[in-house]
Amino acid sequence: MEETVSKNFIEQIIDKDIAEGHCKKVVTRFPPEPNGYLHIGHAKSILLNYGLAKEYGGDFHFRFDDTNPTKEKEEYVHSIKEDVEWLGADYKDHIYFASNYFDKMYECAEFLIKKGKAYVCDLTPEQIREYRGTLTEPGKNSPYRDRTPEENLQLFRDMKDGKFPDGSKVLRAKIDMTSGNMNMRDPILYRIARMEHHNTGNKWCIYPMYDFAHPLEDAFEGVTHSICTLEFEDHRPLYDWVVHECEFENPPKQIEFAKLYLTNVVTGKRYIKKLVEDGIVDGWDDPRLVSLSALRRRGYTPEAIKKFMELVGVAKSHSSVDIAMLEYCIRDDLKLKRPRMAAILDPIKLVITNYPEGQTEYVDVPNNQENEEMGVRQVPFSGEVYIEREDFKIEKPKKYRRLYVGNEVRLMNAYFVTCTGYDVDDDGNVTTVYATYDPASRGGNSPDGRKVRGTIHWVSAETAKQAEVRLYENIVDEEKGVYNEDGSINVNPNSLTVISNAYVEPALEEYKPGDSFQFMRTGYFCLDTKDSTKDHMVFNRIVSLKSSYKPN
Ligand code: ATP
Ligand code: MG
Question: Taking the mean position of all CA atoms in its chain, how far away is CA 257?
């Protein structure tokens, strides 16, 4: 039986538009402002728009919404591109810059002026605010509202030609100062601002406002469905007014959906900037953040992010999603794909007293017990190995099945060993554990049917590589509050733990930055792309093995 997947509300709108003949080819877009790094919320928008274009055999446009010269930087253009490509949203040659449309936008403004739908207004910003009215009171008309189209055209051209100081005049749409929707009370379309633009330099001293520019950009490109987040719902009538009054033949349609919010996660540009500037995190790609560059550095895959977005779905009302769901997705993605390696994060030495001195042998270890296709590797074993400190106890706790004097356990894939003793330092810390092994249990198999109840992992001391391991927790704890009383961010003191003396098996040297693995019993890890070198390997913990989240 074929599985039926119910369509989300956006797909239902598109289906209807196609059925009614309003839309021949679906065109969607992702229009970031190049004023910061993209985060997991943007990934939702990218994957949604790209996914719809693909599903309907249409086009996906990638457009930099760079009409506001104050905040924009080339650096962001580069990082945003990298992120969109990483997510696999293939925009082919459909990459656009809104600033390339300044001429066409200007023409649209003149068109509206000639139609009597826009006018130049000399009110000061304070007066404009005052005339606008409030949510409960209607606004009143500007005294400049009834200028003739001829006069407006001349004034607007003079604005463009730099004849007036910044802020002294604006171009406004002539709509309705009594409208119940504040956005419709003669909104500003153009302002005078002498600012250099990263693309057009000093060509313009007037710049279009977002609410005018955005619908035009969509219309110029033939976008059919302009999908944005809920806060633009109140702007939709203006969006429709602009594309209608500019008389586009097949005007785009704006559709709003709910933003993605994660619990215990900071996504706001302002907050992240503060964390970066205060030196609390190591840049925008610090693995504790949820910018896409940070998630990539942490070891997240595009597949996991896609899976997550599928689970979250598309909704019309706001809700928060637990980050545990994202963690579930990365575990699920890596589980069968990545090799399982040995790493000891808190090492103590285990000396096997009856093992031939100086000998090293190789034991077979499956690369992934759940995926035989990944084959087997040869791992060196010798008479001295590192094990996790917590795998040995002087006093045996209840139900403890690992090493204590007199107990026999399995060294995974190697041998049965029986603990015979231990050394402690002056502070009572265990420094070395001693054991004997049973040569007949090679491969970790019982020679005579006797059973051991514990299995622990190890790395051979002689060939092990010392490495740095970084463990992460949420950077803020929402239950304790994101902010302190003085306005600073309430950073979780355990958000980063650095382990500098971990030991890992030598095969890990063959991998390159960005590669990921399961470290047996401790989690999924990835070689850091910024700080890891052959001589000093640095591993980021992507996620632990255990989960509090279960999908339905
Ligand atoms: P700003 O606060 O500077 O406006 P922004 O996060 O809205 O930042 P944009 O570059 O304007 O950034 O966003 C590009 C696109 O990403 C927009 O279509 C926006 O609606 C969408 N988007 C932004 N944040 C989220 C989010 N949390 N969930 C889903 N989509 C988002
Ligand atoms: Mg925005």
Answer: 18
Rounded CA-CA distance 27/42 in Å is 18
Using an 8 Å Cβ cutoff, are 413 and 372 in contact? no
**pLDDT tens digits, one per residue of 252-307:** 999 999 999 998 788 888 888 888 888 999 999 999 999 999 999 999 999 999 99
How many angstroms is it from 151 CA to the middle of ligand 1? 39
Nearest atom, ligand 1, residue 35 CA? 3
Ligand 1: residue whose CA is nearest its atom 26: 41
**In the structure, which protein residues have their CB atom closer than 6 angstroms to any atom of ligand 1?**
31-33, 35, 41-42, 44-45, 228-229, 259-260, 269
Alpha-helix runs per DSSP H in 63-134: 74-86, 102-114, 125-132
Separation CA 498–CA 8 (nearest Å): 43
Size of the chain, expressed as the number of residues it contains:
552
Per DSSP, the residues of 356-418 read PTT-EEEEEEES-TT-GGG-EEEEEEESEEEEEGGGB-SSPPTT--SB-TT-EEEETTS-EEE
Phi, psi of 426 (to 5 degrees): -60, -25
Q: How far is the CA of 292 from the centre of ligand 1 (A)?
A: 13
What single letter denotes the amino acid at residue 445?
N
Separation of alpha carbons 522 and 456, rounded Å = 12
State pLDDT tens for residues 24-77. 999 999 999 998 899 999 999 999 999 999 999 999 999 999 998 877 678 899
- Sheet of 170-173, strands arranged across: 118-121, 170-173, 188-192, 206-208
What is the C-alpha to C-alpha distance for residues 160 and 286, in angstroms, rounded to an integer? 44
Instruction: Let me know: does 517 contact 338? Beta carbons within 8 Å.
Output: yes
Residues 526, 515 contacting (CB under 8 angstroms): yes
Name the pairing type of β-strands 408-411 and 360-366. Answer: unpaired
Tell me the whole-structure pTM to 2 decimals: 0.93
Model confidence over 106-140: pLDDT tens digits? 999 999 999 999 999 999 999 999 999 999 999 99
Q: For residues 236 and 214, what is the distance between their CA atoms, to the nearest angstrom?
A: 11
Hey, how many other C-beta atoms are within 10 angstroms of the C-beta on 166? 13
Spacing, Cα 113 to ligand 2 middle (Å) = 28
Locate the ligand 1 atom nearest the alpha carbon of residue 33 and give its number: 10
- 171 vs 156: CA distance, rounded Å: 7
Closest atom of ligand 1 to 267 CA is 27
Q: Is the pLDDT confidence value at 319 over 90?
A: no
Pocket test for ligand 1, best of 42, 50, 84 (most atoms within 8 A of CB): 42
The residue contributing the CA closest to ligand 1 atom 27 is 41
- Single-letter amino acid, residue 49: N
What is the atom index within ligand 1 of the atom nearest the CA of 34? 10
Nearest atom in ligand 1 to the alpha carbon of residue 36 is 3
Task: Tokens 């449309």: give the residue.
Answer: 101
